[in-house]
């Protein structure tokens, strides 16, 4: 029964990510942690990575590959730092710091300070995403905010490419630290069909989002992800 509920949670998150470009982890992470803490972060990272590759295949021709490369360059040291956080540092302080940083970026965007996917911005966003994605399986908001003014297909495809490679990096770093075992991978694999179903259900919704709703959706989900991290920090 727990697996079924976990699958439904993942499917709901997959619908959101398939529509906006990110959001699976920020929807699923807190609920999966309540169902069974073993689902976070490794099994969730597994299913999020597979979903991202499905997402990329669907709209690969719209990806900003230059941006993906620079964001991944920042993700590598961020993932190493994230694994260190998992092993050594208090989760509450780390999560609160990342959440506040994301909320500040959202606030800056709301006052018309538009953040753009420039090379330095992508490196920084990739690093922050690597930390939060590895430690808490929530790595979408920092990079997504930079693409808030792009077409919806570009956001989805670019984040799909970034998450696909980035989650593999995070898993590799966690595995090197002895924090991944076969049971984690199996838990993630069982949830993949639910993620695929959610992606299929997102097809009609993404066409609606592409009619001018990409920016508010990205900013709203980024803020929701930051608040989720803050709440998690208070109960961890």
TrEMBL record:
Keywords: Cell membrane, Membrane, Transmembrane, Transmembrane helix, Transport
Alphabetical list of InterPro entries matching this protein: TM_pro_TauE-like, TSUP
Localization annotation: Cell membrane
Membrane topology, from the record: Multi-pass membrane protein
Bilayer-crossing regions: 6-32, 39-57, 69-89, 96-115, 121-147, 159-178, 184-205, 217-235
This protein's GO CC annotations: plasma membrane
Signal sequence interval, chain numbering: none
Family note: Belongs to the 4-toluene sulfonate uptake permease (TSUP) (TC 2.A.102) family.
Protein name, UniProt field: Probable membrane transporter protein
Organism name: Pseudonocardia halophobica
